[in-house]
Write a structure and sequence with these properties.
The chain is mostly helical and about 325 residues long. It has one domain. The chain has nine helices and no strands. Helix 1 crosses helix 6 and helix 7 packs antiparallel against helix 8. The longest helix has about 35 residues. The protein is globular and about 75 Å long.
Length: about 325
Amino acid sequence: MLCVVRAAWLLKMKFKNNFTILYQTLLSEKTKKKSEQFILVIAIASFLIHLSIICLIDFGIISFNSGSDLLKNPIAAIYTPFSFILVYEVYLLIHYLPKSITIYIRKQYEIITLIIIRRLFKDLSSLSLSDDWFHIKYDLQFTYDLVASILLFFLIYMFLKNSKKINSNNEKDDHPDKGISRFIQLKKVLSVVLVLVIIVVAVYSFQHWLAGVISPAEDAGVSFKSINNIFFEQFFTILIIADVILLLFSFFHTDEFHKVIRNSGFIISTILIRLSFSVSGLLNTLLILTAIIFGLLILVIHNKFEAAVAQNTHGS
């Protein structure tokens, strides 16, 4: 019996050590800095390559049979480096998951905002400057996105301000209990799984989109028209699953009403962002704004609720 217990303990320690190595390899501060430098190099190179292709097409040196606006205007070349910056933002979201749930949620909001900013660069290349501005579909979408990007920037700023109140309270707890420690460990495991899953989804999405560009007749479901949704539609679906797992496991270390509502509200916010990918036009923009306003209100009310609970506890 003692041998079995010892063998189980050794197996547990081996798994723990291997997981620690894997976590440090994928999500350490050192890896984050290297990833940042790598993405910046790729972003700059991709911008120059995209710009060069547009110039070569414009001068008639090469030809490319595509109706894409991304190959017609030099401004559209900014779209490509932004795509790589977004990939790095996805990595940062996963990196911060074990550290802070509010930073993790804020990163979701930053990603969807950057997607809108990226879309603005794409739409800039196809604007029709005329008196019929409010009757042209693409011009209207550009107007929606322009206003939404400013509003989202302000909402994320407000979310950051209210997040600091939670983080400052957490820093006071230098010795978290075992329940919180286990929950943090779970988030680390989930982060590693997310990195591996996201890599697979990214490769699959890029390959599927590329096949649609090369052979549009064979794969009409993926084209330049849906380029803004590629990868991120699947990404936010995965985030919803991850958020639900976090909510369920959070019950092991807390059953406080306001924390349960906060975590549930964040899931609803993520679902609204995911739904925005299935619609277009004004409804798309309104869903994104609603998602972030909802998340911000949930956080503000949670902070006030927590302050009231603390005050009642000290009063009694």
